[in-house]
Structure formats: structure tokens, C-alpha cells
Amino acid sequence: MSGGLSIHCVDVASGRVAAGLQVIVRRLGADGEPLNDVLAEGVVGANGLLAHPALMSEAITPGGYEASFRVGDFYRAQGAPVPSPAFLEVVPYRFHIAEASQHYHLPFKFTAWGFSLFRGGA
Known about the structure:
By secondary structure, the chain is mainly beta. It is 6% helix and 41% strand.
């Protein structure tokens, strides 16, 4: 059984989970670039998680992935005074899964001006 992938997003400027933030997850090709096929896409829910069935399924296999976070759109939807284009429009995060049996948790902490991404312990 696959350990799966969870993505948790927090807008640290407001101190709240980033409900409504759009996230897209793609596999990386052999050249290290994202493939056109989308593995998972959706918006972060009220619990701060991207809920997509592919993320907790056998679809998560060893290999490279890219999660893209649409930060600029998120802040515009919140009515925040961000410039257009925003300093951070889309934040791409490329990572690799070596052991599909392990769970990979990706916390994304951000503001309109900076971010932190890492493999968490969940």
C-alpha cells in the first residue's frame, strides 16, 4: 500500500489555513520538467489540506513531482492589496519520492512575500 502524499497550506500572514488556495500536482518527466498530465488539482479545504483521491492512492509512486501553489490568485481572492503581477504568482515545488510505502507530508507556509516548503513529519 502506498503511504501517500498530503499537502497542508497555511497563510501565516493571517494565521489561518489557506482555504481556497489552488494547488496542482504533476509528475516530473525524465528530463526533470513537469509533464502535461495533472495528477491532482483542487483547492485547499477548511482543514488546510488538499483533498484529492489520487494523493492517498497507488498513484503515488517513486519518482519526481511538482506541486504548484497559486499564491497571487489566493491573495487577490482575499481582497489583499497585492500588485499585479504579485511578487509570488505561482510557487512551484519540485520534490522526489524514493519510498512509496512512506507517507510524504508537505507543509506550505506562506505570505504574499515569501514561503517555506519542506517534508513534514505527519
